[in-house]
Specification:
heterodimer, A: about 325 residues, six-stranded mixed beta sheet, four-stranded antiparallel beta sheet, 14 strands, elongated, B: 14 helices, about 0% strand
Chain lengths: ~325, ~290
């Protein structure tokens, strides 16, 4: 036990910010594409950028990789400012943009060899590097085919291979699974999970299930701002009413409400209406950290009021997402 | 730079572009050669006029080799790969420039067969031909630099090609324009004033600062006034002189006469360098705005 604590402690000390985004604002004319975005990612994390189309995910990624500059603020990769020393900072990054940057007139092998050259990787290890990434993303069987003849799934994988080659510390993947079929999506997701063991990954998506399946931490963006962040579980819990239930009970409204009101730990109860003949739907909310489901059952059955349905109205990440991105006025804590 | 050079040079031959360029260039220069040196009333060994004519063919073909250099990268979004890797922008542009120049030089080298054929049957003026070739190579490289610059302004290959063609054609007819321009002092002053005004506009467009451009304008006006009182004669033929700087072909004439002057060589190299620099600035500016 003691050992475990010490190890944990040491690990904590070693954690460093691989990427630090500080107060980044990007303006196009009068339009703010990004508004004062700040976050940092520790080494070893898989972080998801989540947001509807046009939320500023790709702009954020383009600024992080030095493709475009920010109007204000700065980005540091492994403590190197991307604008002050771009060639050093960029050595730490593998970037897969939204549209894989492929030269369609090249074969897969030629392309990866070119990428290895412009990334200024050690030429003596080039062949080994190329073989390693081709095995990893499973494009070995098409290595001598022209990229223009490859399917979307293969192209995406070649794009991923391009980002991984040379083992950069940080992988930035912009919607890595967009446009793929369900089987390919699962394959790529598993690949990303595997890569996460060795690399720090930032990926963007507008698909929630993807982010919750892969990421350790999620940043939700909307209209150029980060509106919420946390682990997928935290986010879901933070914004959901996990002690809230919907019940359908057979009996009269008064009887049911009076019966439920006697339960200890109850916060509120209200009737929603009748959706089935002879039954009432009620919305029950318990006090924080109290599980009243069992007492609900016992109480109602004692009063001879059969429960036909009991459903938790926990918000899924999807609902959290919609709530966060739709209601800006509401403050999210 | 080597990686970009190799990739670009190869890509000319991965598509039909490189082959079409070489084929058309060699076919038309072959026709010119046959018609003016062999199948004429008086077969002769004057190869320089042929080369001068080929420069015009090359002018028409430059857009073919430069139109896609940067426009296609922007269009296909492959520039995202290039600009996010440790390689510098200057290296990328230089790689592309040298690849296009290499394609051009190789094609030009093949045309050396023609004077060789002539030398078998008569005496050729070796040094003036060598001079012409050097001049042609430098002139062509300058054309390519212009083409690459225009390719960086757009993501549409057709616009890039038409733009390059228009710009080169304008340079071609600059000689004629020069001849019919007024050379009086008055016209020189007016031209200088217009020039200062244009510079002010450019400064304003890039800084959006009315004071800075105002200061530039006042400074320009002051320079014009000082020159007017100190040395009026400077304004004589100013318009013609100014346009003469951009007349790439005028200097080529020196080469084809066999005159190899350092100033002309430096001029062409500077011209190319300036346009490569402009290309880099242009791309940077777009990424920074």
């Amino acid at each position: 036990m003691c050992n475990a604590i010490t190890i944990k402690h040491i690990n904590k000390l070693e954690v460093i910010n691989l990427i630090q985004v500080e107060n980044v604002t990007k303006r196009y004319g009068n339009r703010n594409a990004l508004k004062d975005v700040s976050f940092s990612v520790n080494e070893g994390e898989i972080v998801g950028l989540l947001g509807p189309n046009g939320a500023g995910k790709s702009t954020t990624m383009n600024i992080m990789t030095g493709y475009i500059s920010a109007t204000e603020g700065n980005v540091k990769i492994a403590d190197i400012d991307i604008l002050e020393n771009p060639s050093e900072a960029k050595k730490n990054i593998g970037y897969l943009p939204e549209i894989p940057p492929l030269y369609i007139d090249m074969t897969v092998e030629e392309y990866l060899s070119f990428v290895s050259d412009i990334k200024k990787l050690d030429p003596s290890k080039k062949e080994k590097n190329i073989k390693y990434v081709m095995d990893l993303v499973k494009v070995d069987d098409v290595k001598s085919r022209l990229i223009k003849n490859l399917s979307k799934g293969y192209r995406q994988r070649v794009g991923l291979a391009q980002a991984i080659i040379g083992d950069p510390k940080l992988l930035i993947l912009d919607e890595p699974t967009v446009g793929l079929d369900p089987k390919q999506i699962i394959e790529i997701r598993n690949l990303i999970k595997d890569l996460g063991k060795k690399h720090t990954i930032i990926l963007s998506s507008h698909i929630l299930s993807e982010v919750s399946a892969v990421c350790d931490r999620v940043l939700i963006m909307n209209k150029g701002e980060i509106v919420a962040s946390g682990t997928p579980k935290e986010l879901s819990k933070r914004l959901s009413y996990s002690n809230r239930f919907m019940l359908r009970v057979k009996g009269s409204k008064n009887e049911i409400i009076t019966a439920i009101n006697t339960i200890e730990g109850l916060q509120s109860v209200k009737s929603i209406g009748t959706f089935e003949n002879g039954t009432i739907d009620v919305d029950v909310e318990a006090k924080k950290d109290v599980d009243i489901r069992e007492s609900l059952f016992r109480c109602l059955s004692k009063n001879n009021l059969p429960i036909l349905m009991m459903k938790s109205t926990d918000l899924s990440l999807e609902e959290v997402f919609l709530q966060v991105t739709n209601t800006e006025e509401e403050e999210i804590v | 730079m080597k990686a970009v050079f190799n990739k670009e040079f190869k890509s000319y031959f991965n598509s039909a572009l490189g082959y079409i360029f070489m084929a058309v260039f060699l076919l038309i220069s072959g026709i010119f050669f046959s018609l003016s040196n062999i199948i004429t009333q008086q077969p002769n060994t004057y190869f320089n006029p042929v080369l001068s004519n080929i420069t015009f063919v090359f002018l028409l073909l430059v857009p073919v080799i430069t139109m896609r250099t940067i426009a296609e990268e922007t269009h296909q979004k492959t520039d995202q790969l290039l600009y996010t890797t440790p390689i510098s922008l200057t290296e990328i542009i230089l790689g592309k420039y040298f690849a296009a120049v290499a394609l051009f030089l190789i094609t030009l080298l093949i045309t050396c067969i023609y004077p060789l054929i002539l030398s078998i049957y008569g005496t050729v003026d070796v040094w003036s031909i060598v001079g012409s070739y050097i001049g042609f190579a430098l002139l062509g490289s300058s054309f390519i630099a212009i083409g690459i610059f225009i390719s960086s302004l757009t993501d549409n290959q057709v616009v890039s090609a038409v733009g390059t063609f228009g710009a080169l054609l304008l340079i071609w007819i600059l000689g004629w324009i020069q001849q019919s321009l007024p050379t009086s002092q008055k016209s020189g002053i007016i031209f200088a004033a217009i020039l200062v005004f244009i510079i002010c506009l450019i400064v304003y467009a890039s800084t959006h600062n009315i004071y800075v451009s105002g200061i530039v304008g006042i400074a320009g006006a002051a320079v014009i006034t000082i020159i007017y009182f100190a040395k009026k004669t400077l304004f004589e033929g100013l318009t013609v002189k100014f346009l003469g700087w951009f007349s790439l072909l005028k200097r080529y004439e020196n080469f084809s006469m066999g005159i190899l002057s350092i100033s002309d060589i430096v001029y062409y190299i500077t011209f190319s360098a300036a346009f490569i620099f402009l290309t880099v600035r242009m791309i940077d500016k777009r990424r920074w705005s």
